[in-house]
Amino acid sequence: PANNEYVVDFGRKTRLKSFDKFLKSFEFKNALDAALKYKPAPHKPGVIFSVLQELARMDKLETAISGRNEEEILPLLKYLRRNLINPRYTPLLADTHMVVLQINPN
User: Fold this and answer.
1) pLDDT confidence of residue 32
2) Residue 51 burial (CB < 10 Å; 0-12/13-18/19+)?
3) Contacts of 93 by beta carbon, 8 Å cutoff, 6+ apart
4) Beta-carbon count within 10 A of 106 CB
5) Residue-wise over 9-24: b if at least 16 C-beta within 10 A, else e?
6) 8 Å CB contact between 60 and 36
7) For position 42, what pLDDT does the model report?
């Protein structure tokens, strides 16, 4: 471009992940399910942690966990078991575990 010309960079609009879309539309159970099914999630536990953190901040953690059968709650329990020992995650994951136990004591 010449000195008197301007270049406008439109850039690419970042797409929201499925769990972010569900959070924005207040579908809390679907947001948690999407985060648990997110492909890199087993190798990046922060993704699920971030969704749990946002649900806790919105006071919707119980809403997202309630109404699940054993098959639906199992991925969350596996995540909690695997990451509860991480000091960065322990406070929130311990609270999440308590919510799970209060909703489904079995």
Assistant:
1) 94
2) buried
3) 49, 52, 80, 83, 84, 86
4) 4
5) eeeeeeeeeebbebbe
6) no
7) 58
Q: Is this model's pTM higher than 0.85 or not?
A: no
Asked if residue 18 has pLDDT above 80, the reply is yes
Instruction: Kindly state the DSSP code that residue 1 receives in the 8-state scheme.
Output: -
Please report where in the chains the tokens 């985060």 appear, as a residue.
35
Q: List pLDDT tens digits, range 38-80.
A: 876 556 788 899 999 999 999 999 999 998 888 999 999 999 9
Cα 76 to Cα 94: distance, rounded to the nearest angstrom: 12
Residue with tokens 């078991």: 81
**Cα gap 28→11, rounded to integer Å:** 31
Is the distance from CB of 86 to CB of 45 less than 8 angstroms? yes
